Amino acid sequence: MDGIGKRLLPECILIDPKEREMELIIGKMVEHMAMVKTIANPALVVHAVLKREALCSTDVGFGCAIPHAHTSLLDTTLIAAARISPPLDISETGKTPISLIFLMVGPEDQAGLHLKLLSKLARLLHDSEFRDKLNSARDAKEFHKLVCLKEG
Fold first, then answer.
1. What CA–CA distance (Å, rounded) separates 144 from 150?
2. In degrees, to the nearest 5, what angle opens at C-alpha 49 toward C-alphas 113 and 44?
3. Tally of CA atoms within 13 A in the half-sphere of 87 that contains its CB
4. For position 97, what pLDDT does the model report?
5. Which positions of the chain have pLDDT values less than 70?
6. Omega before residue 87 within 30° of 0, cis
7. Domains of the chain, first to last
8. Fewer beta carbons within 10 angstroms: which end of the chain, N or C?
9. Looking at residue 137, what is its pLDDT?
């Protein structure tokens, strides 16, 4: 299985975007994905992610969120990331404010791969040293390199 690092391109990593609402950040992340990979209708991808987010929060704790969705508009799973500083306090459950967001979108017929990548990403984000390094990354290139090194 090709991993997270191959699906997360440096062009799809936002370092401290100016947007301060999750919906707007997700929109910006999809916009960056669409600049790198052809996405017929980015607005529908954003809608799919927000619809999934409305069902259940994708806040995985430790200041991390992994919004994700399936859509027929894609033929492969794509990942984008954002490092948010200062962190977003969006949780209704008193969890740590969000400083790292990994967005994953993929086709409906790749649900197995989607779950494997989601699970692997959640495991990586449980490492506090790794999170600290991502939160201190100078730029998207360094952020990407950290993900690839951690993934092995």
1. 10
2. 105
3. 20
4. 93
5. 1, 91-94
6. no
7. 4-151 (3.40.930.10)
8. C
9. 97
